[in-house]
Amino acid sequence: MEVGGLVGADRRGQLFRNIQYTGPFFITFRAEIRNTRQTGQYFFQLIIVADRGVNSNRSFFMLCGNERRKTIMGFKSDIEIAQECEMLPITQIAEKAGIDDKYLEQYGKYKAKIDYNLLKESDKKDGKLILVTAINPTPAGEGKTTTTVGLADGMQRLGKSVMVALREPSLGPVFGVKGGAAGGGYAQVVPMEDINLHFTGDFHAIGAANNLLAAMIDNHIFQGNDLNIDPRKITWRRCVDMNDRQLRNVVDGLGGRTNGMPREDGYDITVASEIMAVLCLASDIKDLKERLSRIIIGYTYGKVSEQKPVTAGDLHAEGAMTALLKDALKPNLVQTLEHVPAIVHGGPFANIAHGCNSVTATKMAMKLADYAITEAGFGADLGAEKFLDIKCRMAGLKPSAVVIVATVRALKYNGGVAKADLNNENLEALEKGIPNLLKHVSNIKNVYKLPCVVAINAFPTDTKAELDFVEAKCKELGVNVALSEVWAKGGEGGIKLAEEVIRLVEEPNDFSYAYELEGSIEDKLNQIVQKVYGGKKVVLTANAQKQAKQLEALGFGNCPICVAKTQYSLTDDQTKLGAPTDFEVTVRNLKISAGAGFIVALTGEIMTMPGLPKVPAAERIDVDETGKITGLF
């Protein structure tokens, strides 16, 4: 029926008319866009969310058909919730976590770094390690960080000693599509603006170390090239922590001899830099320096059989790089909205890097609490696989349980629903998307032999019928499942999940890897494709075959594999959703990250420098005259 005279407006002055009531909880209406750079007709959905549990307000949530443009009416945004939180001084959080003042280096009132010597000097027994991962996501993400934070808040409400260990956000997604990585709703880490922007400067230090090495490479060639570096064989690229497709491929050194030697070059986003992986996998400052010295920056002149790798150590760059990174190696301490201690440190992407926070951060959380909860990027085929096969293997970690985050939206997306229609109820698509969830559950239980629970991360756009359907389907198929309402209710909404996780971690497990390190590079890739992705085999291009032979001849054949591929599919084709089988994965490039200690296998169209979308999130971010940031998320 028509609801006459009701008009809403967002902060840009857009006018919304012709509102129609279509059910007890749903109102749809047509919006005429005015006072913006473009005009046209958009459809929206207004959802009434009653009793959110934390402030018990009746709230209204309006979601634009374009996921990148959200308008909130009578309902607090993530940044508003974060800014209204009464944070405790970081010294109180440190005291709560049992961190002696001698290990604390304050960065203002609410942030601090923790001296990594705490790990060497503490004899406390390690706590249980819990990994939070997800099914293949939508472009907006499915709330792993939100679930991780809410689970910790829920465990604290049950009287448990708990700590979270998260990755630091990259400025690329913050200003691009996905937004920040500090959680959402009433399950966030704070100070949210600081964490999502410059934080304690770790990413700047990583970028500086990366670019110092790049500068030393070109300077060495300019000054006579004693190491006989072939400029055409330089593999080291410059980096910047921003989505900027214009920098993917560049020609530099132009302007005559005094400005260097002209050559093709390019930029990666900072989170794809090997320096990021090295920092996250280093056990201490000595190990950090040794790893930096092993980084291969290119090869010498000559035939393939005659080419020799050139390292950062050959350039004597490792000392200066370590000097830039010595403080960045120290984990950052913050807090959740409910004052659970949180370590946020390191931030490699999981589609183009290994997707986990630092080993130091994870071990420190385990040393300081009885339960340490961490997350790994994107779906379990990427972040969890690399967490388990690379990070746990290198650091000697053994998880006690895994949480697989699933959302109604992502299940419908994997069931073939277009992004624009994800907010419409569709039980048929949900059923079609369930096999994607089951494949990830099977991987965790049968490949890695770990106990797991599915956390259904409830969104305000989900209907009761959809949530009930997913929960019932999981139980019908024998999958542990718990509804997570942490976004709306904070720790209270995570108690059911917390109770199940506390039960699971006490179960015995026989943690195993998806592949052993012995064998050829192609053998290990086949193990990943067949066991984790569910495919038929890997196919190496002619170029990748040559690279595999060269890497094995150089002694890198027994390194673990870090596959760079799309996060939206179990395959290397982002359009193949759900749980396809009998497919091939094509590897077009193999590169050794000798400092990190793994081989990167590039598949599909994956890029190490993303681009901004048509309407970047940066367009809605602003600062008022008092310095207060708005629109960050």
Give a written overview of the molecule.
The chain has 633 residues and is of the alpha/beta class. The protein has 19 helices and 30 strands. Strands 7, 8, 9, 10, 11, 12, 19, 20, 21, 22, 23 and 24 form a 12-stranded mixed beta sheet that branches. The protein has a 6-stranded antiparallel beta sheet with strand order 1-2-3-4-5-6, with no helix packed on it. Strand 2 (15-21) and strand 3 form a beta hairpin. Helix 7 packs across helix 8 (274-281), helix 7 (202-222) runs antiparallel to helix 10 (318-325) and helix 9 (285-294) packs across helix 10 (318-325). The longest helix has 21 residues, at 202-222.
Describe the structure concisely for a colleague.
With 633 residues, the protein is α/β, with parallel strands linked by helices.
Top keywords for this entry?
globular; alpha/beta; 633 residues; 30 strands; disordered N terminus
Structural class: alpha/beta
Please give the count of helices.
19
Globally, the shape reads globular
The pLDDT mean sits at 87
What's the number of extended β-strand segments?
A: 30
Which regions have little confidence, pLDDT < 50, spanning 5+ residues? 1-74
Strand content: 15-25%
Share of residues in helices: 25-40%
Largest sheet: 12 strands, mixed
Tell me the span between the first and last alpha carbons.
34 Å
CA-based gyration radius? 24 Å
